[in-house]
Amino acid sequence: xxxxxxxxxxxxxxxxxxxxxxxxxxxxxxxxxxxxxxxxxxxxxxxxxxxxxxxxxxxxxxxxxxxxxxxxxxxxxxxxxxxxxxxxxxxxxxxxxxxxxxxxxxxxxxxxxxxxxxxxxxxxxxxxxxxxxxxxxxxxxxxxxxxxxxxxxxxxxxxxxxxxxxxxxxxxxxxxxxxxxxxxxxxxxxxxxxxxxxxxxxxxxxxxxxxxxxxxxxxxxxxxxxxxxxxxxxxxxxxxxxxxxxxxxxxxxxxxxxxxxxxxxxxxxxxxxxxxxxxxxxxxxxxxxxxxxxxxx
Length: 297
Prior knowledge:
Layout: H1 2-28, H2 35-63, H3 67-95, H4 99-113, H5 115-140, H6 149-169, H7 177-205, H8 228-237, H9 245-263, H10 288-292
Helix pairs in contact: 1-4, 1-5, 1-6, 1-7, 2-5, 3-5, 3-7, 4-5, 7-9
């Protein structure tokens, strides 16, 4: 359940920061009359994300009759989720310092066009996070059919993100967002490695990949699947005591190089020589907190 909580927290905080930047910009620009359009776009994005998540689940449980088809569908969604997780983590690592300025620029253009453009801009800013969350959650929660724990953990993570975002907006809380996204990004890479391993197993069960009975090792005697710590490892990172050879290759082949690339120190960009109108907060490593904090007279 920690894995799904982490997904909700990470994706939820990204979406919350985006919405906070949009709201703060409208408030500072004396354009509060456009706030209903922003919330309408956000609400539509959330509704469509929930619908997308339900559609994935309905397709797997109701539309696919054969077990082989369900295994293949789950394998494909697992691979897609890993692609989205990887792209999202590296995108946020690269774009964190400039996302506030880019959003303000797009919102300025939308304000000049009209209400629908403002709602559309807010919708597009949130829908990506929502669709990613639905897909990643479905892939991470596979094998927990009939268990409401993963869903409750996801909702808990999203609610935690909303509270943190509100506190950041009100300047009641200051966290190092750069370190937060680094640590959660590293954990999500391990979660993604587990999702990929699960996808490979589904491909094997669907008959697409060979080696379903070729075990890389079997440490069931040491890592008893019935123990709490084995369940924790399996739930978080899909670490199991008797994986197949291809599953093990997939887990290591993804986790090791992606973690190395992600944790590699980023090259410092030269500091701007002119003020951009956005106060940079040194202890966060991003513009997001400065952009969401209301201006004081």
